[in-house]
Design goal:
Keywords: Signal. The chain is mostly beta strands. The protein is globular, with a radius of gyration of 25 Å.
Length: 492
């Protein structure tokens, strides 16, 4: 054999033996259970008693819940219990009450908060409250964000709104509630039908660096912060924090000239992005380029303490850009203490519109890492295409999530591969966020399906709940499929 042939053979054998090329992703084990449902499974999900290492699953359907107890230990029961929702309920949520071991369902009515104990099937009025909704006669019950442990004592508190005031009801260890009024009125917007009142969104974070979480409301370009006191109450007068982010509401006096290409600025998130313990803000400035295209500029302002309160610079500390329309999420993907972001977006154009007519569109999934210098990388460190079904009856959700499936402390990526398969890519530290090769898992994934990724059994590994619903098939001109649940619990 010639010297050249020998070298070629050695190089070929070395290449074939490379562990990176030969390595196959380790397939994870799951314990699987499945049950059909007589009720719709498209509603809001509640997970009670998550901290106990077992979960009670509730699925909202019109004026009732389907109740599946202890799904992490016993799997899915053959037939769900039905819990009827009271006729006067306007919103529902879950809560931890004093002197009760298990969490309960809570209902907000026009003038009260009621609790329902699943174990003894009793309903009780907890407190009388002030609400906006006592003026509205017909109300379809839905999930409401009126429950929060504001003073961090392990017990649920409530927040409601009247026409000119925000109300706090703080629970103590005896199960009693103290009432505080905050001078925050709802947003009032004009429409063709008159005036609409919308509660101000609240943020629960430490805004003065005293290790106690405060309550803040964003009013235009300011935060109105009610600081938590040493007695676990909240100051009656707010501290005003300027965001310097050019945020305006719909009724702002600032008018934009017709035809001017100006950015629509939205508050994307308020949270600690760079892991320094201070609350940061991220705004998104969205500008149209031509008829279809849209460019999004993320402006990051890192919080710092000045005169005892959180402050933000007028000039953004960091910037990032991505194209298209869609969702954005912030998460520390690789466990380095810095929150990366990823987008699932699409560039609207003729090609996208043609694809939509066929019942599905391809969206771009892109991940961007945050560097130690506080800047996001300009080019995505990982990108892929995800197909989204948008045909009639489909909920348009994709099996796309980031969670730790193998328990190594690093988030992995789960992606739908086709209608009968999904793939899990193991997370990695360094430049590459995920392994190049993933492990494939077979399961029927029809159009009307959504997934919940959560560690139901508290073993440090993510589990998967598949919820299948009926949908209208335009080709067959009828409703097809069935309502069913499939639960995959991580196995050791």
């Amino acid at each position: 054999m010639s010297k050249i042939a020998t070298i070629t053979t050695v190089l070929l054998l070395t290449t074939l033996a490379s562990p990176l090329l030969l390595a196959k992703a380790n397939k994870l084990n799951f314990n699987k259970s499945q049950q059909s449902s007589q009720q719709k499974i498209t509603g809001q999900l509640l997970y009670l008693n998550e901290k106990n290492g077992d979960v009670d699953l509730l699925i909202h359907d019109d004026n009732r819940f389907s109740y599946y107890p202890h799904i992490a230990q016993g799997g899915l029961v053959d037939k769900a219990q039905i819990i009827e929702i009271p006729e006067n309920a306007q919103f529902f949520n879950q809560a931890k009450l004093a002197k009760q071991a298990s969490e309960v369902i809570v209902y907000l009515t026009a003038d009260a908060v009621m609790s329902y104990n699943i174990e003894d099937k009793t309903i009780n009025k907890l407190i009388d409250v002030e609400t906006l909704y006592k003026y509205q006669g017909i109300f379809e019950v839905n999930f409401g964000d009126f429950v929060q442990d504001f003073n961090q004592d392990g017990l649920s508190d409530f927040i409601t709104y009247s026409l000119d005031t925000t109300h706090l009801y703080l629970q103590n260890a005896a199960g009693e509630f103290s009432h505080q009024s905050l001078a925050i009125s709802p947003r009032i917007e004009k429409s063709g039908r008159g005036l609409s009142f919308t509660p101000q969104r609240f943020y629960h974070a430490d805004f003065n660096n005293d290790d106690k979480k405060d309550i803040a409301f964003q009013i235009d370009d300011q935060l109105m912060v009610f600081a938590q006191t040493p007695t676990q109450l909240f100051d009656n007068s707010p501290v005003v924090i300027n965001l310097n982010a050019h945020l305006e509401n719909k009724n702002s006096a600032i008018k934009k000239q017709q035809g001017e290409k100006s950015a629509a600025v939205n508050l994307e998130t308020i949270e600690d992005i760079n892991g320094d313990g201070f609350v940061d803000i991220v705004t998104k400035e969205s500008v149209r380029e031509g008829m279809m295209s849209r460019i999004n500029h993320l402006m990051i302002r890192y919080g710092f303490i000045e005169n005892g309160v959180m402050s933000y610079n007028k000039q953004a500390d960091g910037k990032a850009t991505f194209d298209g329309e869609g969702m954005i999420k912030f998460k520390d993907v690789d466990g380095d203490g810095l929150k990366d972001y990823y987008t699932l977006s699409v560039e609207m154009g003729i090609g996208t519109m043609m694809s939509a007519m066929s019942g599905a569109i391809d969206m771009d999934l892109r991940f961007y890492k945050l560097g130690k210098n506080g800047e996001y990388v300009k080019k995505p460190v990982y990108e892929n295409e995800v197909e989204i079904a948008i045909s009639s009856g489909s909920d348009g959700e994709a099996l796309t999530d980031v969670s730790d499936f193998n328990g190594d402390g690093i988030n992995d990526l789960i992606l739908k591969t086709d209608d009968k398969e999904f793939t899990i890519y193991s997370g990695a530290k360094g430049k590459r966020l995920f392994a190049k090769r993933g492990a494939d898992y077979e399961i029927e994934l029809p159009k009307s399906v959504r997934t919940e990724i959560k560690d139901f059994n508290n073993d440090g590994k993510a589990d998967i709940l598949f919820l299948y619903g009926k949908y209208y098939d335009e080709d067959e001109e009828k409703e097809v499929g069935e309502n069913k649940l499939t639960l995959w619990l991580s196995a050791s």
